[in-house]
Amino acid sequence: MTVDNADGTKTEYRVWNPFRSKLAAGILGGLDNIHIGPGKKVLYLGAASGTSVSHVADIVGPTGLVYAVEFSHRSGRDLINMAKKRTNVIPIIEDARHPHKYRMLVSMVDVVFADVAQPDQARIISMNAHMFLKQGGHIVISIKANCIDSTVDAATVFAREVKKLQEEKIKPREQLTLEPYERDHAMVVGEYRSQKKKEK
Ligand code: SAM
C-alpha cells in the first residue's frame, strides 16, 4: 500500500507475514532488539528466494547493505531478481559452509542473521562470524529443533545450540520460541566478543 505524504513524497507500507518469515515472527513475538536498523550491514545466511531479505533491505535502507547468501540455484534466481530492484542487496549464490569463497564480496558487518535450518548451523554461523562480524556485533539465528536432533525435546536442542555458540565467543542475550507462528523453533540473539579481556 502506498500513501501520499503532505510534502508530496510517497511512503510504501508492506505486509510482513510472521507465518512466513521467522524474523517477523521474532519481532512480533517480542524480541527486544534485532540489531538491524537504518545504515546497518547485515550478512543474511539462508536467503531463500529473498522474501525476508527484501524486508531487511527496507529496514537498513539506502545507507545499509544486506549480503544475502543462498546455495540453492533455483531460489537464487528469484533472489537475484529481487536484488535488481533493491540495490542495497548483494546476492551471493554460495554454500555458507565455505565463507572464504565470498570473502572478496563481503565487508565487515554489524549483524549475522542465519536461517539455514541445518544440523551444523552453529558451526556455519561461527565460521561466518569469525570472518565477517565486527567486535561487539550481533548474531540473530533461527533454530529449528527437529533439523538438528529429532530424538530429544526442543528445549534440549536449543540449550545445546546456545552452548555451542558460547564456545565460539558468542554471548547469548535474548532467546524466545516462535510460537504461535512456528512450532519448535527458537530465535536467539547473541553478542560477538572475540577478544579476551585485558589482564589487570
Ligand atoms: N530465511 C528465509 C525466509 O525467511 O524467507 C527462509 C530460509 S529456509 C528455512 C533455509 C534456506 O537456507 C533454504 O533456502 C536453503 O537452501 C538455504 N541453505 C541451507 N543451507 C545452506 C548453506 N549451507 N548455504 C547457503 N544456503 C543454505
TrEMBL record:
Where in the cell? Nucleus, Nucleolus
A single cellular component GO annotation = box C/D methylation guide snoRNP complex
This protein's superkingdom? Eukaryota
Keyword Lipid metabolism recorded: no
Quote the catalytic activity from the record.
Answer: L-glutaminyl-[histone H2A] + S-adenosyl-L-methionine = N(5)-methyl-L-glutaminyl-[histone H2A] + S-adenosyl-L-homocysteine + H(+)
Q: Which GO terms describe its molecular function?
A: histone H2AQ104 methyltransferase activity; protein-RNA adaptor activity; RNA binding; rRNA methyltransferase activity
For biological process, the GO terms are: box C/D sno(s)RNA 3'-end processing
Q: What is its main location?
A: nucleus
Task: Reply yes or no: does the keyword Acetylation apply.
Answer: no
Q: What Pfam families does this protein map onto?
A: Fibrillarin
Q: Which InterPro entries match?
A: Fibrillarin, Fibrillarin_CS, SAM-dependent_MTases_sf
Keywords from the UniProt entry: Methyltransferase, Nucleus, Ribonucleoprotein, RNA-binding, rRNA processing, S-adenosyl-L-methionine, Transferase
Q: What protein family is recorded? A: Belongs to the methyltransferase superfamily. Fibrillarin family.
PANTHER family named among the record's database cross-references: FIBRILLARIN (PTHR10335:SF17), RRNA 2-O-METHYLTRANSFERASE FIBRILLARIN (PTHR10335)
Q: What is this protein called?
A: rRNA 2'-O-methyltransferase fibrillarin
Q: Which organism is it from?
A: Gonapodya prolifera (strain JEL478) (Monoblepharis prolifera)
